[in-house]
Design goal:
Blueprint (H helix, E strand, L loop, with lengths): L4 H26 L2 H11 L18 H10 L4 E11 L8 H5 L25 E11 L3 E8 L2 E8 L2 E6 L4 E6 L2 H6 L7 H15 E11 L2 E10 L6 E9 L5 E8 L7 E9 L17 E4 L7 H16 L1 H7 L5 E3 L6 E5 L8 H4 L1 H10 E6 L2 E7 L4 E5 L3 E5 L3 H11 L1
Parallel strand pairs: 6-12
Antiparallel strand pairs: 1-2, 1-11, 2-3, 3-4, 4-5, 5-6, 7-8, 8-9, 9-10, 10-11, 13-14, 14-18, 15-16, 16-17, 17-18
Helix pairs in contact: 1-10, 2-7, 3-6, 7-8
């Protein structure tokens, strides 16, 4: 008897779902955590969205515009932000779900998703909409809007809350004295900030003002940052700076390879009026499971993490080497800098070792390379590339594959 057509369809669907599940699981092992971290830090630079119109504004030099950014002191705002990230990675939005209960916060195994650390991977790919609000240093709120659900991070005084409406789970911690001290470790004046930025530009970067734009109904200048280094994968960064407040409104990072932006993040609507105090109120809903965490997990504070990473990118290898994980070193400086560390283990298994569709997927993400260092695999995105050698050494940077191999050879 000939098989039923509907049975064939069901069998094909089951096979497709199985292959998709294997691909999601494989991505867990082959996507370097550094890629997600850098993506999150890059997104944290400034909010943004597409421009509409070229307003007629007074002429301004690059140095004056940098000083204007540094002098910006917007304490109160609210609005909607749209973020699109295209690193060339698989969609990571459902990665936590594919890993099952073990993906719960802090290894709890309960599948709770209120810990902010678990949300960073979602911003590493795709398009996301956020609502933001701020009222000074002690009140901020960011809500990630999802299909029929919402995830919010709220900082109100000493309390920091994370709430996931989908799982009705809550993460709570308090802002620490260490967090407050870190806020004081900034250069003394806006002029100091501007001079530091322009000193770096003399060596590795070109900074110019190229026209104007209108973002979320605000007139803005376009500040264009272009690396001079040949080995970097960064093409240019364009920042739309509000002409009145100096607040960056638009951030677009395009790769040296061309094509769509790697990161395009920004305001679709913004107001500088004082948000209502109730915006930052939060009480755990009835029946919600509350997880208490330490201050290092506070959305952190994720903003502080982003600031530190941006400082590393601006100042090059010295800062990254001092503040990175134990055993991490940095080769070179500026846009060509490469972070390297030794995992103490073996390299990435080959597709043949993993087997099946997962093995084929793993091989499709990485390129086998060899040199004086031996052999290894380069995992590629449109911005960050990582070389993992067969003896467990890792080289990561916004640089080309050839630059990673050269660094590994020099490391030998």
């Amino acid at each position: 008897m000939a098989p039923n057509a509907s049975d064939d369809s069901a069998t094909a669907a089951d096979a497709d779902e199985l292959r998709a599940a294997r691909r999601r699981k494989a991505a867990r092992y082959v996507v370097p955590a550094t890629v997600v971290g850098v993506a999150a830090a890059t997104i944290g630079l400034v909010p943004a969205l597409a421009d509409s119109g070229d307003p007629d504004l007074p002429k301004i030099s690059a140095q004056e515009l940098v000083e204007k950014i540094a002098a910006s002191d917007v304490q109160q705002l609210s609005g909607t932000v749209k973020i699109t990230t295209d690193l060339g990675l698989p969609d990571l939005g459902g990665l936590a779900d594919s890993l099952g209960p073990a993906a719960g916060p802090s290894g709890s195994g309960d599948g709770s998703s209120a810990d902010p650390a678990g949300k960073l991977t979602e911003l590493a790919s795709g398009t996301h909409t956020l609502r933001v609000a701020a009222d000074g240093e002690n009140r901020q709120k960011v809500s990630l809007l999802e299909d029929a659900a919402e995830y919010s991070l709220i900082h109100n005084g000493k309390d920091v809350w994370g709430y996931d409406s989908k799982s009705n789970s809550v993460f709570h911690t308090t802002a620490s004295e260490r967090d407050r001290k870190q806020k004081d470790e900034l250069p003394a004046t806006p002029k100091d900030l501007a001079e530091d930025a322009l000193k770096a530009a003399d060596k590795t970067t070109s900074i110019t003002v190229e026209g104007t734009a209108q973002v979320a109904g605000r007139d803005a200048y376009r500040l264009v940052v272009k690396p001079k280094d040949e080995d970097t994968t960064v093409g240019q960064i364009t920042v739309a700076v509000d002409s009145k407040t100096g607040l960056p409104l638009k951030f677009t990072l395009t790769p040296a390879s061309g094509g769509a932006a790697v990161v395009d993040a920004g305001f679709t609507q913004v107001s500088f009026a004082k948000p209502a105090a109730s915006t930052f109120d939060f009480t755990p809903p009835k029946g919600a499971k509350v997880e208490e965490g330490d201050a290092s997990k506070a959305p952190g504070h994720a903003e502080d993490f982003g600031k530190e990473q941006r400082k590393h990118l601006d100042k090059g290898s010295a800062e990254l080497g001092k503040n990175g994980p134990e055993g991490l070193n940095v080769i070179g400086d500026g846009w060509d800098s490469i972070a390297t560390f030794d995992t103490g283990g073996k390299g990435v298994p080959s597709g043949s070792e993993v087997g099946g569709d997962a093995g084929s997927f793993l091989d499709s993400l990485g390129d086998k390379v060899s040199g004086g260092f031996g052999q290894g695999t380069v995992f590629k995105t449109r911005l960050i590339n990582a070389l993992i050698t067969d003896d467990g050494k890792v080289y990561v940077g916004a640089v080309t594959k050839d630059a990673l191999v050269k660094a590994a050879d020099a490391g030998k």
